[in-house]
Amino acid sequence: MTDKNSNLYNAFFGLNSDPLAGNDPWNIFSPLSAEKPSRLLSLASLIPDPPPPVPDENVTNFYSLASLLGKPEENPPNRLAALAGLYPPVTAPRPLPSVYPPVAPRPVARPKFAHASPPQSGSVAWVQSVVSGLLKKKAEVNNGRVLPEIEDLAPMEGRRVRAAFVYSDLHGFTKLVSTQLTNTSFLFLHSFVYVTNLLTKHYGGQVMDCAGDRVLSVFHRPPSDLSNEPVEDAITFALWLQTVFTRAIAPAFTSAGFAGLSLGIGVDYGEAVVGCVGIRNDKRIVFFGDAANKAAKLQEVAGPGETMLSFGAVSRRPAYLNGETWKPQGELQNGEYVQRISQVFAADVAPKAR
Fold first, then answer.
1. 8 A C-beta contact, residue 161 and residue 288
2. How far apart are the first and last CA of the chain?
3. Does residue 95 belong to any structural domain of this protein?
4. How far is it, in rounded angstroms, from Cα 170 to Cα 9?
5. What is the pLDDT of residue 240?
6. Which CATH number fits the domain that encloses residue 284?
7. 152 and 37 share a domain?
8. Given a cut of 60, is residue 67 above it in pLDDT?
9. pLDDT per residue as tens digits for the range 261-314
10. Does residue 78 lie within any of the structural domains?
11. Phi/psi at 331 (nearest 5 deg)?
């Protein structure tokens, strides 16, 4: 106990000598005398003053918080924090407006057609609306490692490939169809397409289209493959198809009473896109690119028994065409150098492309 507190204790219980009270320790509880009030005041001077009252601002803060946090007795920590001045003063919330501003109505979508109702199916306005919608779509074209089948592509989807295109067409078949029974023409056309498909697969190609008596065979590679192999396969296939047609197919047709048929072939090479057009249940495979178009045009100018090679195909031709046996004839077609071959293989076995 400190000296100050000890003195206060002793003075309160009269343990210290006091000239006013003598040596009686309980003199402080005896009837008051004239000197004892002075003594009590002297003792009271030793007690510190009480703390100042809480400022009104803290009380305001507390009640402002209490109105938001609930009853004060239910939130003692919040009350103490409010009284301690830890929370800033809370302003009263703004009153809600009695009348809300008007909300603009949502815009109504305009009809696609100028008419009150959709145009009649098949009309000009109907076709305009269909074409307008289709032109807003976007085709999806990716690199292709293999030639896709019709089932592999959705409408407006395509694959980019490097390929050699071979169009083979029967000369004189239109006249045969006009003079023979339908069943007979059907059998001859089926025989030609069937053999063409077998030989196309033999040289690693794929028949992609058959329009009447004209067949499209495609020999492809991925876009990154710049080798001459697809051209070598395509040219060898074309010359061997001419060979078997001259030695086997045409004689069989002649013996059946249908003479005068021959074969014209066009070959070109380049990058193209294999695309799908149409609708879900009626799709078609088409080729976009100069190579397919040039091959078709070369086939049209090919004479009976002739194979036409574009400049792109000539520059990648098989090595055996460089010998003295083959004598292709060079010429210009639409400003481009091409070669015309009228010869066939002498052997009876399918030759190798390289």
1. no
2. 118
3. no
4. 136
5. 97
6. 3.30.70.1230
7. no
8. no
9. 899 999 999 988 999 988 777 888 888 889 999 999 999 999 999 999 999 999
10. no
11. -160, 175
Cα separations in angstroms, 127 against 10, 38, 119, 133, 140: 117, 118, 9, 10, 24
Q: List helix spans (H) across 153-259.
A: 173-179, 182-202, 229-244, 250-255
pLDDT tens-digit series, residues 155-191: 889 998 889 999 999 988 887 777 777 777 888 889 9
The residue among 211, 262, 190, 202 whose CA lies nearest residue 234 is 202
β-bridge pairing 262-279 and 307-309: parallel
Choice among 29-33, 203-207, 296-300, 323-327 with the minimum mean pLDDT: 29-33
| Short-list 297, 269, 300, 275, CA closest to 288 | 275
Q: Are 322 and 240 in contact (CB under 8 A)?
A: no
Angle between helices 56-69 and 76-83 (to 10 degrees): 150
The answer to whether residue 52 sits within a structural domain is no
Mean pLDDT of the chain: 78
Q: Alpha-carbon distance 318 to 315, whole Å?
A: 9
Task: Give me the pLDDT at residue 300, please.
Answer: 94
Cβ-based neighbours of 30, under 8 Å, separated by 6 or more: 24, 36
Residue with tokens 């239109």: 174
Residue 274: name the closest of 168, 167, 169, 139 by CA.
139
Residue 295 lies in a domain: yes
Above 50 in pLDDT, residue 72? Answer: no
Which of 10-24, 55-69, 212-226, 288-302 has the highest mean predicted lDDT (pLDDT)? 288-302
- In 10 A of CB 239, how many CB atoms? 22
Structurally, how many domains does the chain consist of?
A: 2
Q: Which residue range forms the structural domain that includes residue 16?
A: 3-44
CA distances in angstroms from 73 to 77, 88, 126, 233, listed in the order given: 10, 20, 76, 96
Q: Compute the Cα dihedral for 127, 275, 191, 299 and give only its sign.
A: positive
Task: Tell me phi and psi for residue 189, to 5 degrees.
Answer: -65, -40
More confident residue, 93 or 40: 93
Compute the distance between CA of residue 179 and CA of residue 15 in angstroms, rounded to an integer: 154
Q: Are 205 and 217 in contact (CB under 8 A)?
A: yes
For the ranges 106-115, 137-146, 231-240, which has the lowest average pLDDT?
Answer: 106-115
